[in-house]
Amino acid sequence: MAKPFKKIKGGVCAPKGFLASALSAGIKDPSVERLDLALIYSEAPAISVGTFTTNRVKAAPVRVSQTHLRNGDVQAILANSGNANACTGVSGVEHARLCARTTGKHLGLKQSQVAVCSTGVIGLPMPMMRIEPKLETLTNQLSSKNGKKVAKAIMTSDTTHKEIAVRFLIDDKPVTIGACAKGAGMICPSMATMLCFITTDANVGKSALEQAVQESVENSFNRITIDGDMSTNDSVIVLSNAQSDTPRIQRKSKACRQFREALDYVMLEMAKALVRDGERVTKFITLDVKGARTYNDAKKVAEAVANSALVKSSWNGEDPNWGRIIHAVGYSRAMIREELIDIYIENKAACIGGLQADTPMELLRKAVKKDSFQITIDLHLGEANYTVYTSDISPEYIDFNRSEYAYWKQSRKDGLV
Amino acid sequence: MAKPFKKIKGGVCAPKGFLASALSAGIKDPSVERLDLALIYSEAPAISVGTFTTNRVKAAPVRVSQTHLRNGDVQAILANSGNANACTGVSGVEHARLCARTTGKHLGLKQSQVAVCSTGVIGLPMPMMRIEPKLETLTNQLSSKNGKKVAKAIMTSDTTHKEIAVRFLIDDKPVTIGACAKGAGMICPSMATMLCFITTDANVGKSALEQAVQESVENSFNRITIDGDMSTNDSVIVLSNAQSDTPRIQRKSKACRQFREALDYVMLEMAKALVRDGERVTKFITLDVKGARTYNDAKKVAEAVANSALVKSSWNGEDPNWGRIIHAVGYSRAMIREELIDIYIENKAACIGGLQADTPMELLRKAVKKDSFQITIDLHLGEANYTVYTSDISPEYIDFNRSEYAYWKQSRKDGLV
User: Cβ A399–B395 below 8 Å, yes or no?
Assistant: First the structure.
């Protein structure tokens, strides 16, 4: 769907009029210098749209930012890693508001013009004594050179920072979209422990932007799954400051389509980057379900297969095990007929009509040895399709996620628990 | 619910009039002597009831046994491990029927009086050339001493065989229920790669037996989950031959209640044994959800938490991480209010009103260090409860499930693929 766009440097600072800064506030670990507090700021007034986790347990910053984004005039995003400020009750909400208010004061903005985002451990109080004193420095250090630093500051168990910027022409004038994202664990359709901040100088109205964001999120972040979990803190926030020289982009115009293609591309690239950098992941799988009776059936099948621990284990083992795939298709609750199901690995038939195909096993094994491969499941019952992007699950994933005790110990040292 | 009963030896052969046999047919591996073919037989005519997987991809023996059990006069069960006879199409069904027909011939029964069950790898043809010649030997070796051998022959990745027998009095006359089961991977509510065969000499009518089996399965096998997967082959089959000396057990009588309590106990003990012996599992967790608005909400919460890879990883790491539990509660789609949620580990408060409780961390850590512990989630929204029995997930589980390539190689040697 999304065609490749020309990439440029700069991340969230690539579009005109966006500044950023990031520093180490000691939220992750006061004894080590690691970026964990970041600010993105539009010098000009901006239009803002946000999409948030559907988890009914919502982190304090999600609640606060949802309120702030209602006006649609958010002009700055404050983000931290190391502490999710989730399950922190009334004081968590107070802390999130205080962060927004203090940052706003330094920037000359109202509290409601600052969105706040947190990612990290659930259930521990924010170490405000280390965050608050840094907010002024953060504001003073704003610069158009700091896109990458922001991308790094929001990382938790990510192994690499994730950013992108694309420039394209509307009416022969350059328009830019920049983005950074973090992911790693808890990635699942309907959002993830995932933050994505998108900046653009496109001259686009609020309702057109809202619709574009909603649809792009549906086709990107809502289509990725690593471990079937869904976090309390997922947020996608888009700031648009109209600083490009194009006329206002009208809904349903050619310019609007161009903008949406670019936004689709940016979000899908970020979403795929999250899967590739899933915790201890070794494989990137594009899973296409075809021929379902309904869109919902196609989605059910895709998600059942992509979230099956047994299927994911076999991918980790480079085993072209279509038996586990078809068993997950069977329990997906979608309408299926076993004897009609075809399964392809990299376009090589593994299962035809519910039975083993005669493709030599060596060919199928070679296909799943690749770092990235495609699985196609054709149900032969209708016209509906669905695609998810997913990964294997590794012994190291479990090992990695066994304990967060170190965080508790730090909070105790801080006198917070 | 189920009170402890006096256990006796003998497994499925403990009730009067039941014989069994098991041998190595080389289905698992022709070069090694491992039990993989088993027969259970009631000398007297029996009443039979079966419950099967809800997976829409059903193994051939499931389809065949469902038909055979319709008459309710099944008197023998033939079971094999090593090959699931699933996704094997028309020839798979022919193989299952042939097994039932040949076994019936040797026993003097109709084909439809023999149920067939298979467990093992999906998608490979049954090595009939090794199974068929053994069916006569199997019949000749029937004896009342072979309960344990049957329990061993149905094992796949199980580390121990699982059997039980209980004797209790109805009208001062002894009545016995025996059972064996296998489980290991793919254990999930709505059944598992799980076989359970239950024999009883109770004098109980068909409709009373059907109702008892259905309700006991709902409270036992449908309440366990190891990896969230659900297999193509799950079967619970109960044979009742009325050889005890009690009068016919009438529905809703005291005798019927006694029988059902014993059946509940037997099934729950087998179900718990399956969880304890889940693939590379180290913890047994009883997860109680209380105070839900509806039964379905309580179930959704229990299953979301029990199937969360992140929650299960933290149990493996002996980390009393209530943050991950509450995040799974949040995405369960049940009605919840974050600020009302209490979470207890072994009756020690970990989270009160959605916030960290003040129980010392050492106490909570001590609780999750036990091999077996209880988690209680109180939603404080209503009266509905639900309990599931579940486990951690270990790095070794993933490692163990990475490949089934060895099975393919054997099938190739056999000239079957």
Answer: yes
pLDDT grade for A192, boundaries at 50, 70 and 90? very low
Task: Give chain A's length.
Answer: 417
- Longest Cα separation, chain B: 69
Q: pLDDT per residue over B330-388, tens digit each?
A: 989 999 999 999 999 999 999 999 999 999 989 999 999 999 999 999 999 999 999 99
Q: What is the mean pLDDT of chain A?
A: 90
> Residue range B156-162: average pLDDT?
88
| Partner-chain residue, chosen from B228, B310, B399, that has the shortest CB–CB distance to A185 | B310
Phi, psi of A210 (to 5 degrees): -60, -45
pLDDT, tens digit, 9 for 90 and up, residues A320-331: 989 889 989 998
Mutating which of B156, B326, B331, B381 best tests the A interface, going by the most A Cβ atoms within 10 A?
A: B331
Say yes or no: B300 contacts chain A, CB-CB below 8 A.
Answer: no
Active site (annotated) includes residue B193:
yes
Buried b (16+ CB within 10 A) or exposed e, B16-40: bbbbbbbbbbbbbeeeeeebbbbbb
Tell me the CATH number for domain B11-276.
3.60.70.12
B159 shares contact with chain A (CB less than 8 Å): no
Half-sphere exposure of B61 (CA within 13 A, CB side): 31
Question: Could you say which residues from 333 to 372 on chain A have a Cβ atom under 8 Å away from some Cβ of chain B?
Answer: 336, 338-339, 341, 351, 353-356, 361, 365
Would you list the domain boundaries of chain A?
Answer: 11-276, 284-393
What confidence tens digit (pLDDT) does each residue in A55-98 have?
A: 888 899 999 999 999 999 999 999 999 898 998 999 999 999 99
Nearest to A191 by CA among A59, A324, A309, A51: A51
In the block, residue with structure tokens 């992007």: A389
Tokens of B332: 């369960």
User: Which candidate from B188, B322, B354 shows the least CB-CB separation from A89?
Assistant: B354
**Complex ipTM, two decimals?**
0.78
pTM, rounded to two decimals: 0.83
CA distance A337 to A79: 48
> Which superfamily, per CATH, for A284-393?
ArgJ beta chain, C-terminal domain (3.10.20.340)
CA distance B97 to chain A (A): 19
